[in-house]
Write a structure and sequence with these properties.
Glycosyltransferase, 15 helices, 56% helix
């Protein structure tokens, strides 16, 4: 039986950090639109129970950096109902946190709970028929758990709470077993392991399951300890033209885990010779050099600079958590100037969550 991990919570279920001035007013955000709190609660969308899809990348590319256009479209289509549900759910949970009237907030929290409970009772995301589906599901399960965590202190339907807790614990256990028994050695030190770790942290905290919290901590440290002296993550920088992209992608869960564990009295910011600030600084330093550092490792011009993509605000949403850890970092200015520090898989508006 899993042990229990207890911690003191604020009335909102989220710790109060004095970052309002540092990050700017949450009211000025153009993040995921806050859900209007009202007396109505729409039915949850049809639960997605089974997922079965292959890789987004061509089979003959060991670096997993050459997209297969057709396969990518198949993966996106399969995940779209899940991701749409998450975006709406997180908008609702952020709306609860923004609501000043306790009665309205409690009603809106119960609405979030009801939507998750619909998926829980249907055993959503329980039938993952492909390795790739199991590999990529951590971020989605974690996002649902984070929306639940945000509203948990205000909800009143204890039967639904029990159903959701049981469902989340089962999904977390499946993820833990996948990463320990089935995932490849390379994947175990990559960004998807970090997203799975954040999922287990969210579930461990909201269900008070010590095992998941400790696994999340150990997983994050394991990944950070692979960092080279310059802060580059070998599992990410080898990814051809997407090397820097995936370095940034790993930062979102790693920084969030570190910030959450820090406030729980489990600091990891100095682990492995201060790996966390090194991996963050590497990403921004390389971006300023137009990906030249990662190009040395990968042999390819980086996607942010070859016309493939641009660095989006949601990729920088982790800065809300980062400046809570390092309030004197030069990245405070970058956080202030980034218009939209929001990422649905991190729980939405990071200024709201970390102010």
């Amino acid at each position: 039986m899993a042990q229990k991990f207890s911690r003191t919570r604020t009335p909102s279920g989220l710790p109060a950090l004095a970052l309002g001035v540092m990050l700017g007013s949450a009211g000025t955000m153009t993040a995921t639109p806050a859900f209007a709190v009202d007396a109505e609660c729409a039915a949850a969308p049809e639960p997605v129970i089974s997922l079965n899809y292959g890789s987004r990348y061509t089979d003959d590319d060991d670096t997993r950096s050459t997209l297969d256009v057709d396969s990518n479209e198949v993966v996106n289509a399969a995940l779209r109902p899940v991701d749409d549900f998450i975006r709406d759910l997180v908008a609702r949970s952020n709306g609860v946190l923004n609501e000043s009237d306790p009665t309205s907030a409690s009603g809106a929290a119960d609405c979030v709970l009801a939507q998750i409970a619909t998926w829980a009772r249907a055993e959503a995301l329980s039938d993952l028929d492909s390795f790739t589906a199991r590999l990529s599901m951590g971020a989605r399960i974690g996002a649902i758990a984070e929306a639940y965590r945000q509203v948990r202190p205000l909800i009143t339907d204890l039967k639904a709470v029990a159903d959701v807790d049981q469902w989340l614990i089962q999904r977390a256990q499946e993820q833990l077993e996948f990463w320990e028994k089935e995932a490849t050695s390379g994947a175990r030190t990559g960004n998807l392991r970090a997203w799975a770790a954040l999922a287990l942290l969210n579930i461990g905290e909201v269900t008070n399951t010590d095992t998941f919290v400790w696994w999340a901590s150990a997983s994050a440290v394991r990944i950070l300890c692979t960092a080279r002296e310059d802060g580059s993550l070998p599992q990410e920088t080898k990814r051809g033209s997407y090397g820097l992209h995936y370095q940034f992608h790993a930062l979102s869960p790693l920084v969030t885990i570190a910030a959450r564990l820090d406030r729980a009295g489990l600091p990891m910011t100095t682990s492995c010779n201060n790996a966390l600030p090194r991996v963050v600084e590497y990403a921004f330093n390389d971006f300023e050099q137009e990906g030249a550092l990662t190009q040395e490792y990968s042999g390819a011009r980086q996607s942010y600079f070859d016309g493939t993509e641009t660095l989006e605000d949601h990729e920088l949403a982790f800065l809300g958590a980062y400046v809570s850890l390092f309030p004197n970092s030069p990245l405070v200015d970058r956080a202030q100037k980034t218009e939209n520090l929001s990422n649905s898989k991190l729980g939405g508006d990071q200024r709201l969550l970390w102010q």
